[in-house]
Specification:
- Helices cover 53% and strands 13% of the residues.
- It is built from eleven helices and six strands.
- The chain has helices at residues 11-21, 36-46, 62-72, 87-96, 108-119, 130-141, 153-163, 168-175, 179-192, 198-207, 209-212, and strands at residues 2-7, 27-33, 50-53, 77-82, 100-103, 124-125.
- The protein has a six-stranded parallel sheet, with helices on both faces.
- The longest helix is centred in the C-terminal third of the chain and has 14 residues, at 179-192.
């Protein structure tokens, strides 16, 4: 039995989650909270296995709440449930100790898998956040290297295609992405590698194939 606590300041969402989670007989929602202070009090008394935690909550927000939980109850797993999809918020919550990050519109299949995986000690994030998780994990796997020097698997894929001479539009077509997304990746690559143009990127990539894992 996995004991769950739901923390969100919208009761409609809490009620909806409870109905979804009731499908799984091995899940038990033991408490709900509308703000961070309530979460801390409930954690102290109920000791859930997994917390589904919103970021934007009154009194104590999700980030502040998570920091306290991981400091006082490190064994409790936390999955963030939020509509915020920017890199800064995702990384901040992972750095604070979250094991999962899901968008609030996630389907029940992904919600169940996230709870199962996180409960067992793994990480789980919504589609579209894999590169951010990979960057976070790389940083922690290789703490001696600065985070900005670590490229995600998608960024490495794009570097490889740039080296082959593809334009942003061609890369977008090959990877089924928008040209704007490719352009954003390109800018992030330049920033991480401290480069400012394509020619320098190609030169760097050719000189550092082994480090970048390029063929």
């Amino acid at each position: 039995m996995i004991k769950l606590l739901i923390a969100d300041d919208h009761n409609v969402l809490i009620n909806g989650l409870q109905l979804i989670l009731a499908v799984r007989k091995d899940f038990k929602v033991i408490a709900v909270a509308n703000n961070g202070t309530e979460v801390i009090d409930l954690v102290r008394n109920e000791r859930p296995d997994v917390i589904l935690l919103d970021i934007n909550m009154p009194v104590l927000n999700g980030y502040q709440t998570l920091e306290i939980i991981k400091s006082d109850y490190p064994e409790i797993k936390v999955i963030v449930l939020s509509m915020l999809n920017d890199k800064r918020n995702v990384l901040n919550m992972l750095e604070a100790g979250a094991k999962g990050y899901l968008f609030k519109d996630t389907d029940d299949k992904n919600l169940f898998k996230a709870i199962d995986d996180v409960h067992q000690g793994a990480y789980y994030v919504s589609n579209g956040l894999e590169d951010i998780l990979e960057e976070f994990l790389c940083h922690h796997k290789y703490p001696d290297k600065k985070n900005k020097h670590i490229l995600s698997s998608r960024e490495l894929e794009i570097v490889s295609l740039i080296v082959e001479g593809n334009t942003n539009a061609e890369i977008a077509n090959l990877l089924f992405l928008s040209t704007r997304t490719v352009d954003t990746h390109r800018k992030n690559i330049f920033y991480k590698l401290n480069l400012n143009n394509t020619a320098l990127l190609v030169k760097y990539a050719l000189e550092n194939k082994a480090f970048l894992g390029l063929h």
